[in-house]
Amino acid sequence: MWSVAQLCRCSALRAPSLVVAGGRNGFTQLAARQLAPARTSSTLGCSKNRVFRISELLKSNNIVARLCSTPPKPKQSKAVGYWLLGCSGMVFTAVVLGGVTRLTESGLSMVTWKLLGEKLPTTEAEWEAEFNTYQQFPEYKYKNQHIILSEFKWIWWMEFAHRSWGRCIGAAVFLPAAFFWMRGYLDKGMKVRVGVYCALVAAQGLMGWYMVRSGLEDRFQGPSDVPRVSQYRLAAHLGLAFILYTGLLGGALRVLRPFPPGTLQKITELKSVTALAHSVKAMAFFTALSGAFVAGLDAGLVYNSFPKMGDNWIPDDILAFAPTARNFTENPTTVQFDHRVLGTTTLALATALFLKCRRAPLSPAARRVAYAVGAMAWMQVGLGIATLLHYVPTPLAASHQSGSLLLLTLAIWLTHEVKILKYIPK
Question: How many C-beta atoms lie closer than 10 Å to residue 210's C-beta?
Answer without folding.
Answer: 16
